[in-house]
Inverse folding.
């Protein structure tokens, strides 16, 4: 759908009209009013609605395209680009806090970084399930048990649950998590090292606040998780994309690009978004580098519960003999994301600093939900739910792979690791995955283009297809819709 941007033009202003149109659209792109992928109206239509000459709008569009805010696609129109130029600028800046001339003067240097990199709040909540990634199936969650426990805890809360509570988190929940992580993930910890956070996102943000200075280098997986990239970049750190191959992050490439990085962000159990598992050799090399460089490794273990074959893998933290790993986990995938409860396990010498930072940010997480979650775990409901979801999602994964094979006629090559909640569908070389995702969106699907997860040029186009929240019928009808969307693209223009 074409979106008419909020363009403000003031004929009495000394600034040229085309400059005003340019600035107005640029701001709407940066503040998210115009989301990535949005199609802009034709220049003639926009010029008419603004009461300016078409040439004025064309000049503004040309400038925005040249700077990478917009992209024109032959025959399709003009769209807001998916990888904003400011992200890329950020990647190459040595000191990211240098004030930028002409930027919003109300903001501090840190505020500008937050405004420019914090593009996470863009997702419109839609009801479409196929093939949204990262969403557990809400229909399969045992809400009756959860609400019974939540009701019990909140009906007559003990006094301790009504005050400010410990910033590190509710003690019983930290005990439950420490026991779970020790048994299920071979994490070395006790409750004193577990800090409750409002999701992995806050854990990564706290690492950036506590351990990174502006200009410090941070390795991030390429492709990688935009949430982590945004949190680290917003601290003024220099993003160093490090490629991922079949064994996980290529440690030698990281050492070549930034041997003195302060932080490395990795997803060893299930690389996001490609789904690979980091090999033992790479794990050892990463830990060895971190030890020698005095760097910290953030291990984001966001959905390792969903492993459908083979033995459960131990965490990277469990292998770490040097104490360089900060382990991060979340209840977003095993419960539901709006719960906003996650945890981090930090090396002993960092515990006080992290608890202090947590207290400054927001004092702590809501105590009643933490207490209810502790009881939900203690009574075995969470472990039972995870066991059920593991077999449900394994079945859905197989259904999706089978439907893709039957419906997509060999056009899409599916890479389906036996872990996680989505697969990667590789498109033929030369296809534009953003265009494919837009075509899928027109058919009522939510499909993520793989290129969204790269800072640089992606080597191959692809689509991420989530299956966890899709029942059998949704998978089948979704795949028919995807086949239709891809067939409408016809012969693709190369990227
Ligand atoms: C790689 C990765 N880490 C973490 C998360 C979860 O984040 P949070 O715990 O903040 O909900 C996600 C969710 O999509 C993710 O993809």
């Amino acid at each position: 759908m074409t979106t008419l941007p909020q363009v403000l033009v003031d004929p009495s202003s000394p600034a040229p009209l085309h400059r005003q149109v340019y600035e107005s659209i640029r701001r709407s792109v940066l503040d998210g009013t115009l989301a990535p992928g949005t199609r802009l109206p034709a220049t003639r239509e926009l010029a008419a609605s603004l009461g300016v000459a078409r040439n004025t709008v064309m000049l503004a569009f040309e400038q925005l395209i040249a700077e990478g805010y917009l992209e024109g696609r032959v025959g399709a129109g003009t769209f807001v680009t998916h990888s904003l130029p400011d992200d890329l600028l950020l990647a190459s800046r040595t000191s990211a806090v240098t004030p930028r001339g002409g930027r919003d003067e109300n903001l501090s240097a840190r505020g500008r970084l937050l405004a420019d990199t914090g593009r996470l709040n863009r997702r419109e909540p839609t009801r479409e399930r196929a093939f949204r990634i990262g969403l557990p199936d809400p229909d399969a969650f045992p809400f009756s048990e959860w609400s019974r426990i939540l009701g019990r805890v909140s009906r007559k809360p003990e006094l301790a649950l009504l005050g400010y509570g410990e910033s590190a988190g509710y003690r019983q929940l930290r005990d439950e998590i420490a026991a779970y992580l020790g048994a299920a993930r071979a994490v070395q910890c006790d409750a004193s090292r577990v800090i409750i956070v409002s999701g992995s996102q806050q854990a990564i943000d706290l690492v950036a606040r506590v351990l990174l200075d502006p200009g410090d280098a941070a390795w991030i997986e390429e492709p990688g998780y935009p949430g982590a990239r945004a949190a680290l970049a917003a601290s003024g750190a220099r993003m160093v994309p490090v490629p991922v191959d079949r064994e996980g992050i290529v440690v030698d490439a990281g050492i070549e690009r930034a041997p003195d990085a302060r932080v490395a962000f990795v997803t060893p159990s299930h690389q996001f978004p490609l789904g690979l598992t980091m090999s033992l050799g790479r794990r050892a090399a990463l830990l060895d580098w971190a030890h020698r460089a005095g760097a910290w490794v953030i291990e984001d273990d966001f959905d390792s519960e969903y492993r459908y074959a083979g033995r459960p893998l131990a965490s990277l933290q469990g292998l770490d003999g040097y104490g360089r790993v900060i382990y991060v986990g979340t209840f977003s995938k095993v419960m539901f994301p709006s719960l906003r409860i996650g945890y981090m396990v930090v090396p002993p010498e960092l515990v006080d600093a992290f608890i202090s930072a947590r207290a400054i940010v927001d004092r702590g997480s809501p105590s009643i939900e933490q207490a209810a979650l502790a009881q939900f775990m203690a009574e075995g409901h969470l472990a039972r739910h995870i066991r059920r979801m593991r077999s449900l999602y394994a079945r859905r994964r197989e259904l999706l792979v089978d439907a893709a094979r039957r419906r997509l006629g060999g056009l899409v090559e599916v890479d389906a690791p036996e872990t996680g909640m989505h697969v990667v569908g590789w498109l033929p070389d030369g296809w534009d995955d953003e265009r494919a995702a837009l075509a899928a969106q027109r058919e009522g699907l939510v499909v993520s283009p793989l290129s969204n997860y790269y800072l640089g040029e992606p080597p191959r186009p692809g689509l991420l297809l989530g299956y966890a929240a899709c029942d059998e019928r949704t998978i089948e009808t979704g795949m028919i819709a995807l086949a239709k969307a891809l067939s409408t693209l016809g012969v693709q223009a190369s990227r």
Remarks:
- The chain has 16 helices and 15 strands.
- Residues 43 and 57 are 6 Å apart (CA to CA).
